[in-house]
Amino acid sequence: MGFLAPILLVLILWSFYWKTRALWRAAKNGDKAWFVVLILVQSLGLLDILYLYVFGKKSE
């Protein structure tokens, strides 16, 4: 189990980074539906990355 701890930590940090970034942009853009979906769906950051680069246009 000891060798899994670093891998698990990396996955948690990876997911946290993308989740935070996507939620921040969804809130900033006023995308309430995306915000709720991103909160409810845990996907190792895949849905978050999809939102950031495909659906979530940068607001200036």
From TrEMBL:
DUF5652 domain: residues covered: 4-59
Segments crossing the lipid bilayer: 32-54
Keywords from the UniProt entry: Membrane, Transmembrane, Transmembrane helix
UniProt name for this protein: DUF5652 domain-containing protein
Lineage, broadest ranks: Bacteria, Candidatus Giovannoniibacteriota
